[in-house]
Amino acid sequence: MSVFVKFRNRHFLILDLLFLLVIPVIALSLRVNLPWGREYLPSLAVFIGLALAIKLPVFLYFRLYSRYWPFASIDALVTISLAVTVTTTLIAGLYFTISGLGYLVGDSLPRSLPFIDGLLTLVVVGGTRFSVRTAQYYRGRNQPDAASKRVLIVGAGDAGQIVAREILTSRRISLNLIGFVDDSPDKISSTIHGARVLGPLARIPDLVDEYKIQQVIIAMPTAPGQIIRQVVSLCETARVPAKILPGVYELLAGDVNVNRLREVEIGDLLRRDSVQVDSAQVARLLSGKRILVTGAGGSIGSELCRQIVACNPAHLVVIGHGENSLYKLESRLVTGGFDPRKLQVVVADVRQKRRLARVFSTFRPEIVFHAAAHKHVPMMEDNVADAVTNNVLGTANLVGLAKDYGVERFVLVSTDKAVNPVNVMGMTKRVAELIVQMAATETERPYASVRFGNVLGSRGSVVPLFERQIHAGGPVTVTDPEMTRYFMTIPEAVQLVLQASALGTNGELFVLDMGDPIKIADLARDMIELSGLKVGDDIEIVYTGLRPGERLYENLFADSEHPERTEHEKIFVHHNGLPALSKNFSDQLENLIQLALAGQTTPTLTLLRQLALGE
């Protein structure tokens, strides 16, 4: 077999020359009873010469001598078939034209000969090449031994078969593929890469016991969270560890392969249908533009930067208050291939208008994404003035500079806590939305707010807290058994923010479809079980009661808002969704900021509530 694998394209050219000389003779022998007479020889010689003159140039045109055949696939077979079809058509047409004009000596060949010749050519040319592919497959096939871990793949789709192929061909992977499970009736009992689809997902515990499965691989990158939860639950019942192929958002930057398998994480259990983003529309918005991102060192801000650089901006200015997070962001972007000459890192506080003015004057941003904010609800209840100066004054500074320097598009990253706000953080974000609306009205530019709920993995999320508590042995603290929140992954949220920014025209309030709310208690229970522990036996969940500023449920829309779906099914819009601003809004806003700067907590809170709730 190794001899076949070492075949090069020059060897195929020599083989083709030999076979193409012989194939017409074989074709004639199949068509005419043997022995056939010499009367066919002149015409056969012309046919062979004509066939060589046509086939070799066409094969060269179709690049049959420049492929690496050990990795040949279906597209190679299609190419061979197309090349042979073209040559057969040309040979038949030219040969019978010459024959009809009387230029041939001796008897004409049977009219079916070119087509028999074409069929034999297809078999020989395709067969020689795919014999190399077959030899390579069996030569590289992994032979599991007694020490190889017996695995079951969940999902017999594209991802599942790619994982199976890597298991079978990679010598660095000590796994023994036993079979697949899949809920599709059409796939059950079928064979993929020599392994059978053994049944539906519900049979996982039985199959683990029957086939002594030692590991389950979940290969369904687009499956919703409820399916992943079902599989994880079945694996826990069977007492078998499960690994998972990352979800679709994690796979955007890389190929599917076994090396990307990891432990099941909480984000996998919360998956929803994958979001389809009009990447061309977003790319047209961002490509070649000077873009500024505030809060760039945070979870949302850093992901915004990562996705923005993929759209090839002319320049990216990142602003943040923490130098360590900005350093990490800069390293990540440059290491990822972004031109450092097009990146400017600015350590600054959004409350410092003079500092921001120098940045705007120097770099003249055309698009601004404002993600900087204080977001911790209970903490902001005790730091009212700081919440106002950061979230309100910071937004006012940026919006004012955007107006002065002709920024084309401004996007405020807002929160569901701005809906009917009951806490300081929510009220400051509500006022920030009002500031953006006012600027959009004054400038008639596409200045918009994008509102969404919690994001998994952010520094303010409960997930890192639960992880630390589980690692410490518990207890895991939940404020109330009925508390629910909306959750979304960071990449998904940022994709939709960018998409919403492309849809904005003037002062819209965009709201992301967050799916169904999740009970925090269920989230805690899932995280404990994913750690291999049992609630009650190994670790406790303790309910501590609502903290200042918290409420049991969050809403995505205020009672007065009447959202409509945009052209994107995951984004809602409410045109002029914010209340009409009072004539003295600007004066009240200035008073609010001055009170906060002076540290007068009680009057600051009173005026903040009036502005946010329209009292």
Number of separate domains: 3
The mean pLDDT is: 83
Q: Termini separation (Å)?
A: 83 Å
Q: Poorly predicted ranges (pLDDT <50, ≥5 residues)?
A: 1-5, 248-258
Question: How many helix segments?
Answer: 21
Computed structural class? alpha/beta
The main sheet comes to: 9 strands, mixed
What's this model, at a glance?
The protein has 21 helices and 22 strands. It is an alpha/beta fold and 615 residues long.
Protein architecture, described:
The protein is an alpha/beta fold. It folds into 3 domains: 2-140, no CATH class; 149-269, NAD(P)-binding Rossmann-like Domain (Rossmann fold, 3-Layer(aba) Sandwich); 279-580, Rossmann fold, CATH 3.40.50. It has 21 helices and 22 strands.
What would the keywords be for this entry?
3 domains; disordered N terminus; alpha/beta; Rossmann fold; elongated; nine-stranded mixed β-sheet; 21 helices; 615 residues; single chain
Topology:
Layout: H1 2-5, H2 9-31, H3 41-61, H4 74-100, H5 113-140, E1 149-154, H6 158-169, E2 175-181, E3 191-192, E4 195-197, H7 204-211, E5 215-218, H8 225-238, E6 242-244, E7 262-263, H9 266-269, H10 279-286, E8 290-294, H11 299-309, E9 315-320, H12 323-335, E10 343-347, H13 353-363, E11 367-370, H14 377-381, H15 384-404, E12 409-415, H16 424-443, E13 447-452, E14 454-456, H17 462-471, E15 476-478, E16 484-485, E17 487-489, H18 490-503, E18 509-512, E19 518-519, H19 520-530, E20 541-543, E21 564-565, E22 571-574, H20 585-597, H21 601-613
Parallel strand pairs: 1-2, 1-5, 2-4, 5-6, 8-9, 8-11, 9-10, 11-12, 12-13, 13-18, 14-17, 15-20
Antiparallel strand pairs: 3-4, 6-7, 16-19, 18-22, 21-22
Helix pairs in contact: 2-3, 2-5, 3-4, 4-5, 7-8, 10-18, 11-18, 13-15, 15-16, 15-20, 16-21, 17-19, 20-21
